[in-house]
Amino acid sequence: MYVSGGIYEMASDQVDRYRRSVAEDLSGQALQAAITAAGKAKLVILGDRLTRVPPGYHKEHPRLDLLLHKSMYASRDFGCPEWLKTARAKTEILKTWRAMQPLIDWLDKYVGPSDKPIERQDT
């Protein structure tokens, strides 16, 4: 069982809003707090990332690791535990979704939806 929530792919306008919000002190610190809380709940923060500093941002920015993201989501891989066949599965899923809710709320507030198509690069 795998539980995940966030933004798996961002359009260019979403990435721009995401980075501007990460760079701002108040909203950037709120994201860092949501990520810290997710880590305490055994969630992993994933997403596509750049390998270099995004244009317009300094390599010494205190949240550079977050600025590198082009998408972001929290996840937890439970594997196939015995309790998956029981009522406990619902409890575990709900507990995990609640733990990722601060990140999802942050993404909703500061990134939001896009009217632009997602630009995909073929490899």
Description:
The chain is an alpha+beta fold. It has one domain: Yope Regulator, Chain: A. The protein has helices at residues 12-23, 25-40, 64-67, 88-110; strands at residues 2-7, 44-46, 72-77. The chain has a 3-stranded antiparallel sheet with strand order 1-3-2, covered by helices on one side. α2 runs antiparallel to α4 (88-110). The longest helix is centred in the C-terminal third of the chain and has 23 residues, at 88-110. The protein is elongated, with a radius of gyration of 16 Å. The mean pLDDT is 93.
Fill in the keyword field for this structure:
Yope Regulator, Chain: A; three-stranded antiparallel β-sheet; alpha+beta; about 120 residues; single chain; 4 helices
Element pattern in H and E: EHHEHEH
Neighbour order of strands in the largest sheet:
1-3-2
State the CATH topology.
Answer: Yope Regulator, Chain: A
The tally of strands reads 3
**Mean pLDDT across all residues, rounded?**
93
The top-level CATH class is Alpha Beta
Total helix count?
Answer: 4
Task: Give a short overview.
With 123 residues, the chain is of the alpha+beta class.
Topology summary:
Blueprint: E1 2-7, H1 12-23, H2 25-40, E2 44-46, H3 64-67, E3 72-77, H4 88-110
